[in-house]
Design the sequence.
């Protein structure tokens, strides 16, 4: 099983700040099959990034994904009020599919 | 709009049975895999398993998942999650989500259903 470890657990930032979220895999993720999801309180997760770096339809370009192998990053260039949420990475190369434990981006 | 619609919230007693559903109202997902994802209160996301709507005999689930049954009805493009005997620890929000590409489970999840809250009390 591929274990995904996200860091930090909580990120305290202000609107307009840059956010950098990390997702580390316990072994290499084939084909960089990593997705990122955003979850706001009381809502279902929403796809942001797939294939480590491809933005999903309708996702603002302030969201970007990068990385390969075992190290992946989600960057939000300038935080908007609606971006304060919990973010999860997921690997879908291998069964069982696994998620990271999440990073909460909160208002400082 | 591409969407998945889940059945409503449930309140059950320990030991009771339950079956929740996830439907593609547009009947467009016949050749897609559907995943179930659990979120316990205040916790993260856990993949519970996936099923291929094109052939509901084809499933994939983690070896640790043995207390719940995933099934589907291809004719109505609906997936199900079923418990024969609920435990208090089954209290959670359950989401279904479509694997993004046809005929493959090796892709990301999009779209997601709205979630079904299951509360099990003793």
Sequence:
């Amino acid at each position: 099983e591929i274990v995904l470890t996200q860091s930090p657990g909580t990120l305290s930032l202000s609107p307009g700040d840059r956010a950098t979220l990390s997702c580390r895999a316990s072994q290499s993720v084939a084909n960089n099959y990593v997705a990122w999801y955003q979850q706001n309180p009381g809502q279902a997760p929403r796809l942001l990034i797939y294939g480590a770096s491809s933005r999903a339809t309708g996702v603002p370009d302030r969201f970007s994904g990068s990385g390969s192998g075992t190290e992946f990053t989600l960057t939000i260039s300038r935080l908007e009020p609606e971006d304060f949420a919990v973010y999860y990475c997921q690997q879908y190369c291998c069964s069982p599919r696994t998620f990271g434990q999440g990073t909460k981006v909160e208002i400082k | 709009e591409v969407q998945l619609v889940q059945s409503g919230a449930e309140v059950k007693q320990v030991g009771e049975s339950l079956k929740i559903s996830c439907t593609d109202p547009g009947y467009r997902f016949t050749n897609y895999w559907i995943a179930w994802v659990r979120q316990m209160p205040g916790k993260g996301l856990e993949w519970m398993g996936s099923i291929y709507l094109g052939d509901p005999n084809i499933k994939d689930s983690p070896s640790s998942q043995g207390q719940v049954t995933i099934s589907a009805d291809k004719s109505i493009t609906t997936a199900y999650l079923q418990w024969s005997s609920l435990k208090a620890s089954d209290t959670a929000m359950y989401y279904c989500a479509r694997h993004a590409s046809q005929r493959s489970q090796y892709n990301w999840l999009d779209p997601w259903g709205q979630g079904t809250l299951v509360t099990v009390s003793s």
